[in-house]
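job 3f2a | input accepted
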Amino acid sequence: MSTSLPKSDGSSFLVCEDVREEVNNKLSVIGVFQNDEVALQKEVLIPSLMAVLFARGGEGSCETSVSLTDPEGQTVIQSPRQTVVLEKDKIHLAAVRVLAPHLIVGKYTIKFSFDDETIERAFEVKQA
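job 3f2a | predicted structure (128 res):
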C-alpha cells in the first residue's frame, strides 16, 4: 500500500465545546464557535473546548501528533506521537481538548502533524 498524507486544502477545522463518538460511526459535534473565535464572559463557564481537524487526502500508516501554542508562544499541549492508518476516501478526525478556564486573550495556534506534513490552524480568544 502506498502512503499519502492529508493536505491542508480540503481539510476542515472547527472549535467547539465537545465531540462525542456515537454508534454507527457517527460524531456529535456540540457547541460550535463561529468564526473560530471564543468570547470569554465572566458569567458563562466554558469548562473545555475542542479544536478539531477533519483531515482529508491521506492513505496508509503514519505518525500523528497535535500541539497547541498559546498567544505568548508557549507550547501548552503536546500530544504523544501515535501511529494511525489513514484510509483512502475517508476523513481522519484529529482533535485536542483545551481546558478553557486557563485560556488567555489572544491567538492560539494548533499544529496537526502527519509524519513530516503539518496542517496549521488558529483560533482567537477575545474578552466579551
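job 3f2a | The chain has a mean pLDDT of 88.
job 3f2a | closed
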